[in-house]
Each structure stands twice: as C-alpha cells, then as structure tokens.
Amino acid sequence: MKTKVVLEYPFRCTPGSLFRAIATPLGLKRWFADQVTATDDRYEFSWRKITQAARLVHRKTNAYVRYQWDEGDYLEMRIASQELTGDIVLTVIDFAEDDERDECRSLWDMQVDKLKRAIGCPKK
C-alpha cells in the first residue's frame, strides 16, 4: 500500500520562476521528465521508454499544482514564502510503497537539485 510522502525544499528565487518550472510543459521538461506534452488539462510525461499520463486537477498561480495520475495517486507541489527569511519553500507531496520511501526521498532530492540548476537558483 502506498503512503503519502511530504518533502520540503528551500529555494532562493521568485515564486513566479519556480511556478513556471512546476506548472508548464517547458518548465517541467527542464528538470522533471525527458518529454512533457499537454493538451488542455491532460499531461504526458516521458522518461526514456516510459510514458505516464496525468490530469492537472488543481492549479493556483504561484502557489500550487496537483497532477492526478491515471493510477489514482497524485503529485502535488506547493510554493510558500517564509516570512522571516524571505526564502521560498517548495513542498512536494508524493506517494510511495512503505519499503520505497527512502528511494522516493532520494529521487526527489536529485530532482530538486536539477530543478534548482534549471532555474538558476543558488544552492544553500
């Protein structure tokens, strides 16, 4: 059974640049998948020889996106500002089998590093 995995990553960038990277096919292609196409609210993500389809079910500009996979799970990414530091925090909500939670976290750590490079975000 899959359980929810919630991960938080600090960013030094504008909410708009981060949002474009998580909510547009061009932005997603730069860090998330090899190929991303969208028709209306239907997205197709391709990695090498694997293609996975999702629907964009929720979107609020500069705040969050949620993609619902055909299998029923979803991927949500939320953007929030930390008032004290001015940093932006990206919260990733994904799902993984209990024995794959560490692997899921490692994969997201690598993907978010790639995302930071793609949008020119300085490392902390």
Structural account:
This protein is α+β, with helices and mostly antiparallel strands and 124 residues long. The chain is 26% helix and 45% strand. The chain contains 3 helices and 7 strands. The chain has a 7-stranded antiparallel sheet. A hairpin with a 3-residue loop joins strand 4 and strand 5. The longest helix has 18 residues, at 101-118. The mean pLDDT is 93.
Task: Write a concise synopsis of the structure shown.
The protein has helices spanning 15-23, 25-29, 101-118; strands at residues 2-11, 35-39, 42-47, 50-60, 64-69, 74-81, 88-97.
Descriptive keywords:
alpha+beta; 124 residues; 45% strand; 7-stranded antiparallel β-sheet; 26% helix; 3 helices
Quickly give the structural class.
Answer: alpha+beta
Distance between the termini: 35 Å
- Order of SSEs, N→C? EHHEEEEEEH
Strand adjacency order, main sheet: 1-7-6-5-4-3-2
Average pLDDT level: 93
Q: What is the radius of gyration?
A: 14 Å
What percentage of amino acids are in beta strands?
Answer: over 45%
Number of helices: 3
Helix proportion range? 25-40%
Low-confidence regions = none
